Every structure is written in C-alpha cells, then in structure tokens.
Amino acid sequence: MDDLTERSVAERVRTVLARGAAGTVEAGVLRRPLRSARVRDDGVVVLVVDVAGVSRDAGNADRVVGTGAAATVEIVDTVCTGRCRSSASRPSFALDGRAASGSERDGECDDECAVARGVVTLSGIVTASSAARRRRLVTADGGGAGSTGEGGTLQLSELQPLEITYLTSDGVHMVARADLAAAAVDPIGVDEQVWLRRLASDAGLAARLALRAGRQIAGTQPRIVAIDRRGIDLMIGSTAGVFGERVRLPFAQVCSNSDEVLAELATLSS
Predict the structure, then answer these.
(1) Three-class SS state of 147
(2) What is the CB-side half-sphere exposure of residue 157 using CA atoms within 13 A?
(3) Any idea where the domains of the chain sit in the sequence?
(4) Residue 200 and residue 82 in contact, taking contact as beta carbons nearer than 8 Å
C-alpha cells in the first residue's frame, strides 16, 4: 500500500499480526523463531515463541523471553499471490507460520509470486512469560508440522511494546501503542492470502481490471498483488520483466464482508 495514512498503518500492522504471521524474536543474545504475535485490546502483544533446541538442563528454555527482558520482534509482511500454487487444493501456510506439509510439491514462492509490503518491528519489555512446554503443532491440512509429526517447544510471553514501526519503501512509519490497540482488524485483509489464491484462479481477472483502470496490457502480465476492504492492487509488468507499475483500484465503499467485495470486483471488471 503506497498511500498509507497514520490510521491505516495501525490497521495494517494489527491485521498482519491477526493473521498469525511468523517472524523472529530477539532477547539479549538469543534469537528464536516467532510463531505468532497477537495484539490484545489493552495494547499488550502476546508472543508464541519456539524455544526448541534450547537446553532445558541448563535452565535456558524458560528464560529465552523471560519476564523483565527487553525483546524485539520482527515480522515481514508478505503474502503469496497464488501464481505458484493456484492449482493447489489447500493453503500453502500453516497455523504456526510454517509451510504446510506437501507444499513443496506444489512449487515454491519466488520473486514473481511472493510480495513483501513491509516489515513490522515491535520493541519492548516482557511483562509475563510462561514455562516452555512441548506442544504439537498442527498444519493447515491437519498434519504435524514436521515430517515425523512431532511437536515443538513453545513459550507464551506478553510484550509491553515501547516502539512499534512499519518499514515500507516509503520509509519508516511510527505507530503509537494506543493507536494499535484501537485499530480494527481489516476483515478482508486478514484473509488476504485466501483471497489472492481465489482471485488467481480467474486467469483473465487481472487483465480486465487493468483495462478498467485505463492501462494498456499488450506485452504485459497483469497480476493481483493485494486486496483489502478499501480496494485492490495490480502489478502490471512487461513480459520481459523489465518494468512494473503498481496500480490501486479503490472500491466504491469500505467492504465489511465477502459479498460486498465480490460485488465491487464484479463492478470493476465488467
């Protein structure tokens, strides 16, 4: 989104976190995988940290993100546009942020498919932390996260954020904790991965939308790269991959459900 406002930045960040997006958490000299980070209405961020591989005998597992520690969370806001797995019968992501089992057979995201919008960074103090416990991680298709179906050792921590930023190509956007807590989750953007895969199944939709936007599509490969409750984004690039133009098509209304989105898309593509 190139036209981010202060309000929509907070909404964007909260929506990214509401997806259960994975990332990393750094506390001191330790850097561990982050399985999810969710914002509560009081502004506290609940972290699910993978502490597998940390020695429990040495007592380190329970102190990876311990109470009172300073921690920094980094999450890349990225989605698959559906081009690499448009024929797959299931999502290519898991509830814990890992790739679903079997997704490798369907292809892998590359620069032509995966789209990164920005990087969410949360820095603050850990105010509460649970003991590390072994839990079974369930993927989107119902299988185990690993090839053997084994679980992971997870730790729940509460982070009191002192600084929240969203880095985009336009620069760094600062987000106040109160604004993040008050921001609504975009009901369309939170399921953006599903929407993009669904829209990618219509091979001619992106071209019709590009024509409606007044763009010439001869020698180009239009594709849909983003959708939220306010509109849809196209990337119109040459077949040779030399250039690309991002085009925003706003909806006539702020959509609150899938029926309204489908109606807007029908209008834009007619």
Answers:
(1) coil
(2) 33
(3) 6-183, 202-269
(4) yes
